UniProtKB/TrEMBL annotation:
Gene3D superfamilies: 3.40.50.2300. Its main location: membrane. This is Receptor ligand binding region domain-containing protein. Coiled coil: none annotated. The keyword Amino-acid biosynthesis does not apply. It holds the Pfam family ANF_receptor. It comes from Stephania cephalantha.
Length: 145
């Protein structure tokens, strides 16, 4: 699976960035990450499995985050380009996530990027392909390939 290696590395980088900002403060016990996908699709099923496995591996190896647990919040977009995406984004933002993984379609990624950018929450997509989704316009959007 193409995203299999990317997911654990990305999760660790996000957590390290989140913890770096705490300086001398006590690090959090839980770091929340969101995943927004259409679960009833080929990419969505693969991504769900890979992300869940990565979270499991990180949480079950005490050497990786030393007392910090990752909490994965997954939302199914149900192939809805507007209502499902908007509802899901606001639900995960309320959960105080440090980053969002997904969504697949570029049209939904653009809409989610607009919101995530305004709230300064990184959005990482390995499925959105529209070249107009750039870090120049959306500074919190990261595309992987």
């Amino acid at each position: 699976m193409r995203c299999g290696l990317f997911v654990p590395v990305f999760i660790l980088i996000l957590v390290q960035v989140e913890l770096y900002g705490f300086g001398d403060c006590q690090p959090p016990k839980v770091v929340k990450i969101a995943a927004l996908f259409t679960f009833d699709s080929v990419i969505g099923r693969s991504a769900k499995t890979a992300i869940e496995a990565a979270i499991y591996d990180v949480n079950n190896d005490p050497r990786i985050l030393e007392g910090i647990r990752l909490n994965l919040i997954m939302k199914d977009l149900n192939c809805s380009a507007f209502t499902g995406a908007i509802e899901a984004v606001f639900q995960v933002i309320e959960e105080e996530v440090v980053a969002i993984i997904g969504p697949q379609p570029s049209s939904i990624a653009r809409m989610v990027s607009f919101i995530a950018n305004g709230l300064q929450v990184p959005l990482v997509s390995f499925a959105a392909t529209d070249p107009t989704l750039s870090s120049l316009e959306y500074s919190y959007f990261l595309r992987t390939r």
